[in-house]
Specification:
It is built from 16 helices and 18 strands. By secondary structure, the protein is an alpha+beta fold. It has 2 domains: 142 residues, Beta Barrel (OB fold (Dihydrolipoamide Acetyltransferase, E2P)); 258 residues, Bira Bifunctional Protein, Domain 2 (BirA Bifunctional Protein, domain 2), CATH 3.30.930. The strands form 4 sheets. The chain has an 8-stranded mixed beta sheet, with helices on both faces. Strand 16 and strand 17 form a beta hairpin. Helix 14 packs antiparallel against helix 15. The two termini are 18 Å apart. The model has no long low-confidence stretch (mean pLDDT 94). It is found in: Cytoplasm. Its cofactor is Mg(2+). This is Lysine--tRNA ligase.
Length: 495
């Protein structure tokens, strides 16, 4: 930034940084030893009264950002904020000395400082550090947003997350809850005997889900690669290899639209269990998400956007065709031709794409009539075969598969199958996907010859599941936009 671009506040702060240098004080400081953070002090000593603190003479050393400062003459107060909270500090010239008191008076909101002192209670009974030493650590060259208004512009808060975290306690709460949720999910799968693994982010073949990819090029190999849209196919290769129970938590990338529920890169967990089926995956997702909810919130009930979501198992299990029939009156259990299905769709004003088959029309009916009616955790199962190229056919009705999706608050949270392990059937499904791609379906999978070969070595009957971690974090933290549970979401350039 050039000098001409600076506003008055920024110019004054740069001048103050130079004044610090002239005083022999490094504006951007050195290491500082802390004994406590603000929360530890409050947790340990909040019950000690004035006399007890006077008697104990508890010495502490903390560091953090000045978020409030007041006082005049030869004494003043400030509030210092660190990662876990904030605490009041009382600074007197006759205790810290003229030089250090001059630094205190010279400080601006946003500066980072270190303080040593003893704990006491003020006349208003506030737990406070009486400073015996004041150390300047970092000069803030930009002022913080107004404390009453903060970053009101959500886009600006997402763009400058570092400022959002300083001024917005809720942003810090979400940022610190996210890893706790992920750790709890890991612990659950570890406790069930799953092995956590890592698989490639760069895929030479598009597969594992229906999505538009990001494409990149590797110069040395002179090959195009896709940023992975799913971890499914590499993980199932590990089941072939005999690892039996595997999971991966990682980023996926989809070159698609952005809205409150979709970001181009997002985090999922995918897990595969040998000798299991769709029913076992239903039990697994119920057990995992209800257990994590209880661990994080201390309750099975979630208050999300003023709606109470009951996460305790068991959850409703509803066949897709039954759900459509109950809400729209259309019965897709009846055998019908594609033309008949298209006619029903037209009658009910359900949009049909050029490449749609019977199964795509069933899915379109579900999305049109049912999806936005689901609030409480509901397992929707029995997806049509055309939209489930990696799932086993249902033994009773081969038009459908042993697949389910978990829906909560009108959104999908998980997708699971009894995995297709027949290499001949799998090859036919891939071939159908290739035909769909030729007909204009940009999200169709490609032929993965190596995966077919892996299946030919024999994959045991297997259950598999993918869970959207970002959406689950949104649910547990009562955050309605995915870009507010991702620290650095993607945004358009400023115009």
């Amino acid at each position: 930034m050039y000098q001409d671009d600076l506003n008055e506040q920024q110019l004054i702060r740069r001048q103050k940084a130079q004044e610090l240098s002239d005083m022999g004080v490094e504006p951007f400081g050195q290491k500082y030893e802390r004994t406590h953070n603000a929360k530890q002090i409050i947790d340990l000593y909040s019950n000690d009264d004035h006399d007890t603190l006077e008697e104990k003479q508890i010495e502490v050393s903390i560091a953090g950002r000045i978020v409030l400062k007041r006082g005049q003459g030869k004494a003043g107060f400030m509030h210092i904020m660190d990662r876990d909270g904030q605490i009041q500090v009382y600074v007197r010239q006759d205790r810290v000395g003229e030089d250090q008191y001059a630094l205190f008076k010279h400080a601006d909101l946003g500066d980072i400082v270190g303080v040593k002192g003893v704990l006491f209670r003020t006349k208003t009974n506030e737990l406070t550090i009486k400073a015996s030493s004041y150390t300047h650590l970092t000069k803030a060259l930009r002022p913080l947003p107004d404390k009453f208004h903060g970053l009101q512009d959500k886009e600006e808060a997402r763009r400058r997350r570092y400022v959002d975290l300083i001024v917005n306690p809720d942003a810090r709460r979400v940022a610190m809850t996210r890893p706790k949720i992920i750790r709890s999910i890991q612990n659950y799968f570890d406790s069930k005997g799953f092995i956590e693994v890592e698989t490639p982010v760069l895929h030479p073949i598009l597969g594992g889900a229906a999505a538009r990819p990001f494409i990149t090029h590797h110069n040395t190999l002179d090959m195009d690669f896709y940023l992975r849209i799913a971890t499914e196919l590499p993980l199932k290769r590990l089941i072939v290899g005999g690892l039996e129970a595997v999971y991966e938590i990682g980023r996926l990338f989809r070159n698609e639209g952005m809205d409150a529920k979709h970001n181009p890169e997002f985090t999922t967990i995918e897990a595969y269990l040998a000798y299991a089926d769709m029913g076992d995956m239903m039990d697994l997702v119920e057990g995992c998400l209800s257990t994590v909810t209880q661990e994080i919130l201390g309750s099975y009930d979630i208050n999300y956007q003023d709606q109470i979501i009951h996460m305790q198992a068991p959850w409703k299990r509803w066949h897709m065709v039954d759900a459509i029939k109950e809400i729209s009156g259309v019965d897709f259990w009846k055998h019908m031709t594609l033309d008949e299905a298209k006619a029903i769709a037209k009658e009910h004003e359900v949009h049909v794409e050029k490449h749609f088959s019977f199964g795509h029309i069933v899915e379109a009916f579900f999305e049109h009539f049912v999806e936005d009616k689901i609030i409480q955790p509901t397992i929707i199962y029995g997806h049509p075969i055309e939209i489930s190229p990696l799932a086993k056919k249902n033994a009773a009705d081969p038009r459908f598969t042993d697949r389910f999706e978990l829906f909560i608050m009108k959104s999908e949270y998980a997708n699971a199958f009894s995995e297709l392990n027949d290499p001949i059937d799998q090859k036919e499904r891939f071939e159908n996907q290739v035909k769909e791609k030729e007909m204009g379906n940009d999200e169709a999978s490609e032929m993965d010859v190596d995966f077919i070969e892996a299946l030919e070595y024999g994959m045991p009957p297997t259950g598999g599941i993918g869970i959207g971690i970002d959406r689950f974090i949104m649910l547990l933290t009562d955050t309605p936009n995915i870009r507010d549970v991702i620290l650095f979401p993607h945004l358009k350039n400023r115009t």
